[in-house]
Fold each of these.
Amino acid sequence: MMTEITKTTTRLQDNIRDYNWQYFLKDNITGSWYQTAWIAILALVAALFAVTQFNEAPTATIAILAAWGVGTIMVVVGTLFQHHTKVSRWLKNNLISSVSNALLSLLMMLVLGMAARGIALWAFINANFNPAETAPEFQSQSYATWGVIWGARKLLMTGRMTPEDSPRVWLALWFILGMWALTYITGRPALRDKLQRVRQGIMGLWILSPVILYVFLAGIANSPVYNIGAALTGVVIAVAIYALFWTQKIIRFSWMNLISAAAAWPAAYTIWWAIGRSGILPPINVDTWGGLMLSLIVASSVVILSMPIGMMLALGRRSEVYGVPAWITWPVAIGVSIWGFTTTPQLLADSRSPIEQLFAFWPIAVLVLAYGFQRAFKGNVVAGASTAFIELIRSVPLITLLFMGIIMAPFFFSAGTSIAKPWPVIVGYTLFSAAYTAEVIRGGLQAIPVGQYEASDSLGLNGFQKMRFIILPQAIRIVIPAIVGQFIGAFKSSSLVSVVGLMDLLGIIRAIVANPQWLGLRKELYVFLFVVYFTGSFVMSSYSRRLEVQLGVGER
Amino acid sequence: MKFEGPAASFVDEIIICENVHKWFDEFEALRGVDLRVKPGEVIVILGPSGSGKSTFIRCINRLEEHQEGRIIVDGIELSHDIRNIQEIRREVGMVFQQFNLFPHLTVLENITLAPINVRKWTRDHAEEVAMQWLTRVGIPEQANKYPGQLSGGQQQRVAMARTLTMQPKVLMFDEPTSALDPEMIKEVLDVMRDLAHSGYTILAVTHEMGFAREVANRVIFMDAGKIVEENTPDEFFNNPKEERTKLFLSQILHH
């Protein structure tokens, strides 16, 4: 034992004697006058900071100084012995590689430690969580009064919805949670293959979920008359679309599918009407929507809708169809003229001269115009229109679009129709987001090698199949990181709707701050806002990373 | 294994090209190409690089558009009508230099995608035929892998199975061995030989002289966008008529 200590001491003495101190000094302190000055300033600042913090919080400061001291000694000893432990090597490589870095580390430890201490004291240790104690006499600069979050929970979650409507919000919430749970459970590897049909059903329910949520949260008005015309128009449109898809060879003909396509709309209309008639889900004033619920509705509508719209715009911008395809011109022209002829009797009755009688037959002009348009126009209409739309939207700030939505929406509707504020905002925001999404997707489309297009063509796939099976799956995979970035941006920017007067989370928080009941409480609410947005964005980006890993399978 | 040969054709000449011209902007890539192909013929197209041989066969299934002349495949004339083009593409299979497999689909999905969606086969039938072809090109065990997991030669054989499962009447090869390592060329050539001997109509652009000599009914030599010489393989290699051909042959054979 004794001999060992003596041996170690001798070795240390040897090492210290052999160590090139002059080299160390020259390298770290006396290399140049500005290096010396830098070290001196750093040491002075660290010392001053330590002294100030010592007066504020002696224990914490001493703990930090001690930790730093022990670390430094470990590195010094390790260096002199020319033998590092795991810890001392890590410290040497990361925190204390030179005198300058050692001092910087000390300073950072003091700053971060003090900040952490301050936050912990304010937010947790000294904080008051009692919802009953939020009045000004309970408040202090030195601790948080979290009671306000619980006290104002209804406003924060749903805004100014009336208490009678809150069961509907719970219904919507449980519906979403139930859907998630079902999707998760049926997606387990053990059940995945057995429950193929069930999973398809759940998928269908997800696709319908916007409608279901709309019905829960906005309700259906009770209309006394069953509108047979509305039901049958849907049949005509469904059959027309089916015929279009069939003649374009996108789908195969089958009586089953045709009948279900034709029956879908009347069935949906009947259910809709019946629910309205029964009064189970009476209408809710959409203008009362607010809080986190409105933020989520705006953000998710924008995210969900901007994807398909953006995809269409991206494909449209790259379209190489010259002239107007007949299958677009004629259905539109014929549809407009059929509707137009229903106005003819009224126009004839109102007319006072032969010229005006002629005007009553304006739908004929529509058909002639369509014919001429189709013959004469040879430019790339689809690409031109898509490009114009994208560039127009991208050249306008989002906030301008939102104001335009709010102010100009009434012009599009006949006088007397009132339109709830969230709708034009969602539409404007979706168009904005779709324009950006389109450009991201276009980037992905351009990254696909030309050979993929040629292989699809040479196998006889048509344009739709080529996009659906070959190009888009690869392009979307490429753009997932950018698209998720876009969506996170859309989620965060949804707080801009508070500027045009919507009571989303930010809007309602500003209202709460201004409310005399919660006088003096700001920090707590804005910290809550930060936590909510951070959690949402973090979940989205983590999910995207997982998705990338999942989809990366088999990538070349 | 029960195996069906190429689909029967009811025309005398399955490909008719008359005076085909093609410009890339100012550059005239094809300067009046005439070619008539009977069902079951194996034709190898040779020529120096830039002579327009790839461009020519790419015109036949409209991967490139010709500006003058006529191309008639299986009785259908190529026009701007997209339906005509798609009908021809169904009957004309093409194998590319770079394979052009779909990297996000498995081998089996790569092969069955077009038969299911274009020929409207059921999935079971398509997979059955696909497996027959995979067996014939010698890699049935790779059916559920992704293209990125295969070697170049295997990928090219998958590309051939993909083309053949569509049961085309004409097969076109666009330098199918040029992107392969030397030791993998043989496995691809073996499949091509096999196909040539089972009655397929084949149009092959290739630098494999052995293949041309052995299985071609006719060899076509192109230079500067024109057919310079058209001959039987024996005559072509042993007794070429044109000076340009002799020069080309001396360049490729003597080193």
Amino acid sequence: MSFLNGILSQVQPTKLSFTGDDFMYILPEFIVLVTACLLVIVDLILPKKSRGGLAWLALLGYVGALAAAGYLYYADATISHTTFSGMFVRDNFTLFNEIIFLITGILGILISPTYSLKRKIPLGELYSIQAFSVLGMMIVGGSGDLMAVFVGIELSSIAVYILTGFARNDRGSAEGALKYFLLGIMATAILVYGMAWTFGMTGSTNLREIGRQIASQHSTSSNMDSGITFAMLLLLVGFGFKIAAVPFHVWTPDAYEGAPTPISAFMSVGPKAAGFAALIRVMVEGMPTLSNQWTIIIAVLAVLTMTLGNVVAIAQNSVKRMLAYSSIAHTGYIMVGVAAYVNSNGVDTNVARQNDSISSVLIYSLIYVFMNIGAFGILIYLQNQQGGAEVDDFNGLARWSPIAALAMALCLFSLAGIPPTGGFFGKFFVFRAAINSNLLWLTIIGALNSAVSAFFYLRVVVAMYFNPQSEESKSKLVPTRSFFLTAALVIICVAILVLGLYPDPALKLAQDGATPLFQVVKAAAGQP
Amino acid sequence: MALEQLVFLVFALLAIVTSLGLVIFKDPVHCALSLVFAFANIAGVYILLGAEFIAAIQVLVYSGAILVLFLFVMMLLQVRPGPSLNRLRFFQSGFGPVLGVAFLVEVVLVVLTSGFVLNGGNITKPNNTQAAKMQAGVEYSVSVNVIQAAGPLTIQGKADGIQPNTVGHTAALGKELYSTYLFPFEVASIILLIAAIGAIVIARRSLVSDEEEDHPKRRGISLGSVPAQGSLQAFEVERQTSQSQRRKEAKKRTVILKK
């Protein structure tokens, strides 16, 4: 790499904002970018019959990126390196987010083919735009600058707007895409406005510099500038939209229901985790001084989000819509983890407690990827076989496809948080972090909400195991096999069980992932 | 009165007049055209302020791209003239002026209050923040060129090898864009790429293979809805339908011939 560096410095005498090593630190992102571009090009060249191979190319890209991220981790496990003049940060937080997003990408590819072929959705472009979306999320996860946060979020969001409208023959798809797009650009405008205010108040877009500026302003004047609070509020609104928190959730049900089901699965986990990554990066790294203000806002929003998501999900007959509201509710649970960042009994900077809070968010996001894509995966299986997505369509699933019913039951138990599944540990870590931060009231509301959510998840389980299949649905049954979908469901079920029975390695990785944030916070406050 | 002030007055007055025209004209095409004039005049004001890069962007992006888009949409949707100014709905006639006055008061306050400073005046201090660096770059580059002397080429003030010369902001901006802000700049180009791919995928015609099964009127540019009678889309659909029918007939004929 130093060799390349030498050449570059000879050829170009101007200031270089990066070196050859910097490219090594963005290697996983680079691999995903190349894969995404290759997918579009190869799609044009390949004859129509052999286009199934595109899925393998996409998988190869994601696995390669995962391997590159793992290599960088094993080369230096305590790495914290900023590149491209502070735009991109390679640390363990970046790594954990990359793992989440790449797994989302892999599972998203695996559940797509059969469904999309039946509905004439162009597969090459689907894979490619999905890969671009994953790239955007990875950029958000590793961002060290408001500008990188912004372009990353936009890259992932615009890709998902397009994917939502991919089923061109379906009016619901166009409607969902349009609603998502219009509300999304509105939220983007608010987000950028918040970033502009932050820049105006602190004079920098670099997150660490922002943290330092706010801390120094805070120490010199007793009353904080209200402008920075205004900026924080605008940023929270923007991020709240991306993670679908109440009251910024109105686009969610229509977009999820209208989008092709594999895309609903992808967008219910990927952009949400990216939104949380951005929220944590900006709030924890950039505005730790204001944490008393933003945690209380997030706690209140978490209560609203959990309650509305779960209560409305009860009334849904369409399983797709029910999963949309359930994903809103899960946003609420994850927000409990973010709200636990500050101890409500007076300010303390106990790093272990703060680490519990952020690492619970990370591990919940990871577990949520598996269980939610799993539930959507069985829905896709059902839609492939007989077309419907209502609760009644699940009647008698255990009779004609016992393994699919078992997998669905496992995912739903995990979503409801019943041991020994991964979902139980996700909720356990989040609520434990909240109790340690003296947020008992929030924990109680969360637990009550979990009880409510069990009702509508178990309703589907009851339909699968105890209700007989109607004659009409029997007549619609068209057996279809899909190797990719089966592989995805096997991976998901194994992952849910492993994370439920032996969560230690993943938890360790999540705790490592949260650590670099606190070093930044300490440096901003002027501590060693 | 200096010539510069005279030129400014001309540009400013024209900008106000054409902006009023944008609101007052009935025909949307006239509104759009007067918007072009308003943008061009504002670009002139930018040049007077020494911000020639923003002036160029103003002309290229607003007058060039966005206005053409407006006109295209009007042409495709066949927008009719709207209601005259005194017959607007309450939201437009009641709420609009209030908002306008609020903005006016805001601008006047900003201009008159000397105490209005962002970041307690820090933004223009030559400390290490990006804003200060950019500010320094902009200030110096109006009359000063950035030439590589002893150190690497950066825009950090006079000490780093800035010598008197004449080059505008555009060079300074370009250098920053391709060095400090390279990463977001490249990602922005990827965003444009997926926008192009997405637009093509969503808006292209159905492939020949699914034409046989889909209803002929549900294809085409109109995203699944049946186009209005006599519109461009209807004409296009008709053309496609007749083409595919002709193709089918030709196929039948070849089958018969083979028999």
Amino acid sequence: MKIAVAGKGGSGKTTIAGTLARLLARQGERDVIAIDADSNPNLALTLGIPRAKASRLRPIERTVLNRVADSEGGIKLVLNRTVTDVLREYAIETPDGVKLLLMGKVEHAGAG
Amino acid sequence: MCGPHAAVRSIVGEMIGTHERPTVVDIEAGLEHLSRGTARHVDTLLIVVEPYFKSMETAVRIHELAREMGVPRIHAVANKLRGKEDDEQIALFLKSRGVDVFAFVPEDATVLKAERLGVGPLDVSSSSPAIDRIAELAGKMRTAGV
């Protein structure tokens, strides 16, 4: 079950994503993870993390990636550790047992 | 290709592709951020849509893009609905554009209160009209067995 949640800003996308993740856990799914790829603290709040703590959460660092040559002569980025290790180092436990991963803010407009 | 966006996309793609348990990704608001890396690893895309024209148009564009990328299941989740008329209008509009509405989530005092307090709806109440619809959505996702 790999679900991406999209929508315009303000549509309630984050509320739906976070509440869905918690309800999957409450309905008995184990090891649910939620990934905040939208660089806002609201997913953490929706998952039940208190405001004071949400602002201090540590995003995943780019050091988890290695640049390697791909078969077409280009460069691709791959994880240099197991998912279990990434979760151990960076996942934040939330009240319903959903593990939260935060992607870092992308500072450079237009890059990538 | 190795800018900060590429790095975020690579991490998201790698995590979704490798983690064997249920994963929910809150992707960036603009549809240009639905990257091929993310789309390749996702089995279901939920497009949250509000009952007004611009939001529905955006949903249709996201749907087209996701289909081109080959996302296996794409559904709309209609949100902040204020009554039967909203339900019908949004279902009619999206159906005419080939988009299936999978869940109808009403505007809800519990969600508004949660937003005001900066907490999750489930920290305000374990049941409300909106929460109950999202719980049904969770049940449908589990039944789909993906």
